[in-house]
């Protein structure tokens, strides 16, 4: 009995810490009372755990409010930046932002959501779903639909269908399958015209084929009244392909991919190895 309890206590504490940290999903600041309520923890327990996390730098305290600390940022950055696709994407994302003036996201499929791993550009200034580190339901996101379109339907993660923000959003599996068909008909490029957010058009393409083990997508978003959709589609498709080649150590010559002479692996295997770090 004593042994069983000794194993349960650390697990229970880890669960409490995890529930507390998940309160801060979204980058907001919260008071002790808000953290306690959102985490479902007694106020005394929340206060004790927060105090220790502040000492470790995982949480920061300003006045009576708490937020994620710099140490959490450092750890998260290390996870993202070890990814070869992320490293390969950055220069292309900056170039795409300069050439289009639109905001560029690098996103990954995480269960039924897309997680924004990188963002270049400042618009939209509002809208929690578009910030760096935010999640959006995959069914509502152009990036999510571009990634789902690569998969057989049987391989889709468990998807949810929360109420869309606009009348044009995806509401049912039937709506989603219709959108996925459109993506597949347009060479893997997904276009979301104010379905995810009012006033926003997003265009996305997956980076590399699904069999390469990648689950990242590149997207452009901008004001609905100002985005030249055809140009955005072409730009995203080209940049996603360039990132795919770059992640595998491949260069382009006169519009055709060529593998460096020192690369011994086939392209798919090389890209998978790079992506897995």
TrEMBL record:
InterPro entries noted in UniProt: GAF-like_dom_sf (IPR029016), HTH_MetabolicPath_Reg (IPR050707), Tscrpt_reg_IclR_C (IPR014757), Tscrpt_reg_IclR_N (IPR005471), WH-like_DNA-bd_sf (IPR036388), WH_DNA-bd_sf (IPR036390)
Molecular function in Gene Ontology: DNA binding; DNA-binding transcription factor activity
UniProt source species: Lentzea fradiae
Membrane-spanning segments: none
Signal peptide: none
Keyword hit for Zinc-finger: no
Protein's UniProt name: Transcriptional regulator, IclR family
Residue stretches making up the IclR-ED domain: 71-256
Source taxon at top rank: Bacteria
């Amino acid at each position: 009995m004593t042994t069983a309890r000794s194993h349960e206590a650390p697990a229970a504490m880890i669960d409490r810490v995890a529930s507390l940290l998940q309160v801060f999903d979204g980058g907001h600041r919260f008071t002790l009372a808000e953290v306690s309520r959102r985490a479902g923890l007694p106020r005394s327990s929340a206060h004790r755990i927060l105090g220790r996390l502040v000492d470790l730098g995982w949480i920061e305290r300003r006045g009576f409010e708490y937020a994620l600390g710099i140490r959490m940022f450092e750890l998260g950055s290390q996870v993202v930046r070890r990814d070869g696709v992320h490293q390969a994407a950055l220069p292309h994302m900056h170039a795409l932002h300069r050439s289009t003036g639109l905001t560029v996201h690098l996103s990954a499929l995480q269960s039924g959501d897309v997680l924004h791993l990188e963002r270049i550009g400042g618009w939209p200034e509002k809208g929690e779903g578009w910030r760096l580190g935010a999640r959006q339901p995959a069914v509502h996101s152009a990036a999510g639909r571009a990634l789902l379109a690569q998969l057989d339907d049987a391989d889709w993660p468990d998807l949810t269908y929360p109420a869309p923000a606009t009348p044009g959003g995806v509401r049912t599996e039937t709506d989603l399958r219709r959108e996925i068909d459109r993506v597949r008909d347009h060479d893997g490029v997904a276009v979301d015209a104010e379905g995810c957010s009012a006033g926003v058009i997003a265009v996305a393409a997956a980076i590399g084929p699904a069999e390469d083990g990648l689950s990242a997508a590149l997207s452009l978003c901008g004001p609905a009244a100002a985005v030249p959709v055809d140009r955005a589609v072409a730009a995203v498709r080209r940049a996603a392909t360039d990132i795919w080649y770059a992640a595998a150590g491949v260069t382009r010559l006169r519009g055709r991919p060529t593998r460096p002479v020192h690369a011994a692996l086939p392209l798919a295997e090389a890209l998978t190895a790079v992506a897995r770090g």
